[in-house]
Write a structure and sequence with these properties.
There is one protein chain. This protein has 230 residues and is mainly alpha-helical. The chain is built from nine helices and no strands. It folds into two domains: 59 residues; 161 residues, no CATH class. Helix 4 packs antiparallel against helix 5 and helix 6 crosses helix 7. The model has no long low-confidence stretch (mean pLDDT 86).
């Protein structure tokens, strides 16, 4: 359990206390943007692999409230929804993507899933991690999935701070048309939701990815997925 806790502290710290802070600015000034991004990516991968190894290989399962077996249709729907955010989020270029600053020049820099939330991947991660945390019900899962929930909850603000420092007014124009919480910008009429921008091949990829992970969950992770009760 100690290894898992250390891995989580490492992973969460580099995402919340380095990225989007003055420390990142200092590191970029010393290393350069590309070198910093490379180092950050390597450290993130190391932290992630450390967490996975500690969670699946070493951490004891100490029950808190225990596994939840009821409401599994709901849990499957939530995981499916998480995929509908995460996969299109990865496939949709945005101002926060590498080289995406060119999109600031567009009249509408937020298209597709970005109209719903400017951080679709993290929104999906929040749903995914919270669902797994609740339905597993043990201490190791609380720590493991809780770390992703913390990053997904506080990460968007950290990213926003970083982008505002770098792009200033261009970023603010994008932020004014979007929201961190899904659908808020649309509800507030700061943006619209053309369905033709959402129902594209990206949703099909998300659906296929969900089915593949669902079918291979036992092989990949050694445990049965959260599935509807038969």
């Amino acid at each position: 359990m100690i290894s898992l806790i250390l891995a989580v502290v490492f992973f969460v710290s580099i995402h919340l206390f380095v990225s989007g802070t003055s420390l990142r600015t200092k590191l970029v000034e010393r290393l350069g943007e590309q070198a910093y991004m490379g180092l950050f990516s390597i450290l993130s991968l190391v932290g992630l692999m450390w967490m996975i190894q500690a969670y699946y290989g070493q951490a004891p399962r100490i029950e808190l409230w225990g596994q939840i077996y009821t409401g599994r249709i709901l849990s499957s729907m939530l995981i499916f929804l998480a995929f509908m955010f995460m996969v299109p989020g990865l496939l949709t270029p945005g101002p926060t993507s590498v080289g995406g600053e060119q999109l600031f020049k567009d009249e509408q820099p937020a298209r597709g899933i970005l109209r719903i939330t400017r951080h679709p991947f993290l929104s999906g991660m929040a749903i995914w991690s919270l669902t797994h945390l609740i339905y597993n019900g043990d201490l190791a899962s609380f720590i493991f999935f809780g770390s992703f929930l913390v990053v997904a909850t506080f990460g968007p603000k950290s990213i926003d701070n970083k982008q505002k420092l770098i792009y200033g007014d261009d970023w603010q124009r994008f932020a004014d048309k979007t929201s961190i919480l899904p659908f808020i910008a649309i509800i507030q009429k700061r943006n619209t939701l053309p369905l033709k921008e959402l129902f594209t091949w990206k949703l099909a990829v998300a659906f296929v990815a969900f089915i593949v992970i669902f079918k291979l969950h036992v092989v990949m992770f050694g445990v049965a997925p959260i599935i509807p009760a038969s």
